[in-house]
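Subject: design request, 153 residues
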């Protein structure tokens, strides 16, 4: 069981680092836009100046929306109790199937842990929706493929 917990912790740490990396990138982008807005000076080409400022405001709004989204993802991740073992697939489950392996947490892509490939997926993704509340031995059909849940941690 200890190996199971260590694998789950590794998956969780990868997802946490993924979120923190995205958060830092977005914060840096917002900071750069702020600096550009405060340092840009009005030139003789007034329309060009106004267009540039409008574009920077749009970029700042877009980055602000990304910041809100990544904070929601971080909040979802914080709800996971990695010490909890589930009988049914739920948020925080590590799911082994006859096809692929999943970590139901956030969408963070492919993760290799101790030579085993996992896919970190959000509970709102189509594959996770199919897996949620299933138990070991259940069959799942997804994209013209049928597979069986073999283990849940």
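Subject: RE: design request

Done. Sequence follows.
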């Amino acid at each position: 069981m200890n190996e199971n917990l260590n694998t789950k912790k590794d998956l969780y740490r990868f997802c946490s680092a993924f979120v923190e990396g995205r958060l830092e990138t977005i914060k840096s982008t917002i900071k750069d836009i702020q600096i550009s807005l405060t340092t840009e000076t009005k030139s003789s080409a007034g329309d060009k100046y106004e267009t540039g400022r409008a574009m920077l405001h749009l970029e700042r709004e877009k980055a602000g929306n990304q910041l809100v989204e990544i904070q929601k993802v971080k909040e979802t991740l914080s709800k996971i109790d990695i010490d909890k073992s589930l009988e049914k697939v739920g948020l925080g489950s590590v799911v082994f199937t006859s096809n692929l392996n999943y970590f139901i947490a956030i969408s963070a892509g492919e993760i290799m842990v101790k030579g085993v490939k996992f896919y970190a997926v959000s509970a709102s993704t189509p594959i996770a929706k199919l897996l949620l509340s299933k138990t070991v031995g259940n069959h799942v059909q997804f994209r013209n493929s049928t597979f069986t849940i073999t283990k849940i941690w």
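The two ends are 9 Å apart (CA to CA).
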